[in-house]
Design brief:
- About 15% of the residues lie in helices and about 40% in strands.
- By secondary structure, the chain is α+β, with helices and mostly antiparallel strands.
- It has two domains: about 10-55, no CATH class; about 65-140, no CATH class.
- The longest helix is centred in the N-terminal third of the chain and has 13 residues, at about 10-20.
- The radius of gyration is 19 Å and the shape is elongated.
- The two termini are about 30 Å apart.
Amino acid sequence: MVQLAAKDEAELKAIVRKVEAEQLRYCIFREPDLNNRITAVAIEPSEATQCIVSSIPLMLKERTRADIIFHYNKQHNVDQTVPAWVIKHKGQTHYVDHIDVMDGVAWSTKETPDNPHTKGSIKFKGQLELVKENETITAKIK
């Protein structure tokens, strides 16, 4: 048995949808004291199960925080269809429309007056989640 730590009920529901699509057996556990919300899911072991849960961290293992650096995308001034923000995280660049930062996330600023692309940036230490809804990409920083 392996115990993993889903972020929230929404992630558990997404897992259940994938499990149902694969026609795997599963059991949902609900917490009566929390308005009957889903708090756990047991899934039959299989290769499909491994694929479905491969990105979920082990329970009791802290999710790692990494540098998330963002700055304004000046190209947005020329073309409004271009996302307004550029985010650099773990060696990758993402273009996003909105940034949502949770309370308690540490941050700092950096001025870069000689940089032709941006005169400054903001650095967060946290976890990045990119969410796409209706052609809008939001960077959620936790």
